[in-house]
Amino acid sequence: MKIAIIGVGNLGYSIALGIVGQSDIDVESLYLSKRNTSTLSLFEHIPNVTITSDNLEAVKNSNVIILAVQPGQFDNVVESIKPVLDPKQHCIVSAVTGRNIEHIENLIGKEYPIIRSMPNTAISVSQSMTCLSANKLGQENINCGKQIFNSLGKTLYIEEDLMQAATVICASGIAFWMRLIRATSQGAVQLGFDAAEAQELAMQTALGAASLLVKSETSHPEQEIDKVTTPMGCTISGLNEMEHQGMSSALIRGLVKSYEKINEIKN
Ligand SMILES: NC(=O)C1=CN([C@@H]2O[C@H](COP(=O)(O)OP(=O)(O)OC[C@H]3O[C@@H](n4cnc5c(N)ncnc54)[C@H](O)[C@@H]3O)[C@@H](O)[C@H]2O)C=CC1
Ligand SMILES: O=C(O)[C@@H]1CCC=N1
């Protein structure tokens, strides 16, 4: 696979880290293209990685083009690479929020496989939850996207009209979970642990909770909660207080607010 990442900011950088750190797919070459390449020094001496500020060079030498620029930069970037795009050579994988497949087809034509992807920054450690949708040719070539993203976490193929919701739950979700972990650390410090210990306890407990659900596929969160809540014990006291304070409600309302905001971004 010859991959180009166009736009190597927060997300593009995370994807690049994930790709160079995995061994499941054979990456013949990886082009990293952004305007100011000084932030990419980490990748300088990695075999098969080329750092460039020339998008056209990156596109010409690759067959999977991952677009990871901001929505406002997207149209100009796509227009600028269009002269070197070739439907026989290129599969387009966009990770850009709010630019749907129809919009991309209107820019470059329908003859390209186009895969819309929504990864998250945990792709840098091969733990992304990536949602995918595609046009007709993209569906026929979906393996090009699945191969990359399955090697860097999990994928779920979705109808495109769920992409905004997937962005909130999975991409923004990293920030939401980070804040829950941070709040747990703050509580642990108040209860006597130093900051480093507090974070370790919070991180590993969050990982343990998620792993319980991932590894026992029939399990529901409430079944696991039932196993922890001793009658009249400390867990149920804490949990009920959190719910009296609106924990689940705050989270759900935050997700809905985030969804309302993302829908303000015009395609
Ligand atoms: N940050 C995140 O966690 C996620 C972001 N996304 C989406 O990914 C896209 C990128 O987001 P971020 O990485 O956060 O933004 P960012 O602003 O950190 O990165 C954008 C990158 O594109 C580069 N760029 C701008 N114009 C360019 C051009 N003409 N040629 C080449 N590179 C150019 C910029 O220098 C920058 O490095 C956005 O559309 C965002 O909605 C999607 C999922 C998660
Ligand atoms: O916050 C945002 O709007 C973007 C989309 C998902 C992650 N970052």
Automatic annotation (TrEMBL):
<protein>
    <recommendedName>
        <fullName>Pyrroline-5-carboxylate reductase</fullName>
        <ecNumber>1.5.1.2</ecNumber>
    </recommendedName>
</protein>
<comment type="pathway">
    <text>Amino-acid biosynthesis; L-proline biosynthesis; L-proline from L-glutamate 5-semialdehyde: step 1/1.</text>
</comment>
<dbReference type="InterPro" id="IPR000304">
    <property type="entry name" value="Pyrroline-COOH_reductase"/>
</dbReference>
<feature type="domain" description="Pyrroline-5-carboxylate reductase dimerisation">
    <location>
        <begin position="160"/>
        <end position="264"/>
    </location>
</feature>
<comment type="similarity">
    <text>Belongs to the pyrroline-5-carboxylate reductase family.</text>
</comment>
<keyword id="KW-0641">Proline biosynthesis</keyword>
<dbReference type="Pfam" id="PF14748">
    <property type="entry name" value="P5CR_dimer"/>
</dbReference>
<keyword id="KW-0028">Amino-acid biosynthesis</keyword>
<comment type="function">
    <text>Catalyzes the reduction of 1-pyrroline-5-carboxylate (PCA) to L-proline.</text>
</comment>
<dbReference type="InterPro" id="IPR029036">
    <property type="entry name" value="P5CR_dimer"/>
</dbReference>
<keyword id="KW-0560">Oxidoreductase</keyword>
<dbReference type="InterPro" id="IPR036291">
    <property type="entry name" value="NAD(P)-bd_dom_sf"/>
</dbReference>
<dbReference type="GO" id="GO:0004735">
    <property type="term" value="F:pyrroline-5-carboxylate reductase activity"/>
</dbReference>
<keyword id="KW-0521">NADP</keyword>
<feature type="domain" description="Pyrroline-5-carboxylate reductase catalytic N-terminal">
    <location>
        <begin position="2"/>
        <end position="96"/>
    </location>
</feature>
<dbReference type="InterPro" id="IPR008927">
    <property type="entry name" value="6-PGluconate_DH-like_C_sf"/>
</dbReference>
<keyword id="KW-0963">Cytoplasm</keyword>
<dbReference type="InterPro" id="IPR028939">
    <property type="entry name" value="P5C_Rdtase_cat_N"/>
</dbReference>
<dbReference type="Pfam" id="PF03807">
    <property type="entry name" value="F420_oxidored"/>
</dbReference>
